[in-house]
Amino acid sequence: MEPFRSVRGGGARAWLAEPEAALLRNLVSQVMELVEPEDSDTATSDDPTIAALEAMLHDPGSEQTPEDPVLARLLPDGYRDDPEAAGEFRRYTEPALRSAKHQAAREMLDTLPAAGGKIQLTSDQALAWLKALNDVRLALGVRLGVTEEFEAQWSRLKPDDPQSAAFEVYAWLGAVQESLVQALS
Predict the structure, then answer these.
(1) How far apart are CA 145 and CA 116, in angstroms?
(2) Predicted local confidence at residue 21, as pLDDT
(3) Nearest to 37 by CA among 93, 112, 116, 113
C-alpha cells in the first residue's frame, strides 16, 4: 500500500494492491452486514439522515444491549450505570447509529476499487473511510481480545499461530487509518 497523501483542495489519495482492496472489502462488508438497520425496507429516502429518522419513527430500536460482543462495542450503551436510561436511550438512537455506520461502510465500498489501484477521496469520503475503518478495527479488536497491551499480546504469538495473521491485519488497519488521519490533518 502507498500511504494516503493529502490532495490539494481537501481529501486524500492512496494506492492499494488488489489483495489489500479485497481484504478491506471483505472486512467492511462483514461489519456492514452486522450493523445493517433491522428494518431497512421501510426507508423511503435516499438521504441517510432522513432514512435514519424514518427508521427511528417507524420502528424504534430494541432497548436491550446486543448479546454479540462486537455489536455491543459498535452500538454501546449510553448510560453504563443506569440500565433503564440506557435502554430508553438505545431505543431511540440505535436505528440512526446503525444507519450511519451502514452508510459509512457503503460509501467506503463505493469508493474502493475492487481490483485495487488508485483511490482518490473527497474530504467527506475520507471521513466515511475513517468511520468504517474504525468500526472494522473495533470489531476485529473485540474478536481478538485486543487490549491496551496489543504489542505485547502480538509479540507472544508464534508465527504459525492462526491469530498472528489476524493481529497483523489489525496492525495494518491501524496504519491505513493513521495514514488517512495524517493526510487529512
Answers:
(1) 30
(2) 97
(3) 93
Query: CB pairs under 8 A, 24+ apart, for 45-48?
Result: 48/99, 48/100, 48/103
Cell of 77: 450503551
- The grid cell for 111 is 469508493
Residue type present at position 52: A
Give, for 163, the enclosing helix (H) or strand (E): helix 162-184
Predicted model pTM: 0.84
* Helices (H), ranges, 36-161: 48-58, 69-74, 83-110, 123-144, 150-156
Tens digits of per-residue pLDDT, 106-163? 999 999 999 999 999 999 999 999 999 999 999 999 999 998 888 888 889 998 998 8
Query: Cα(108)–Cα(126) distance, rounded to whole angstroms?
Result: 8
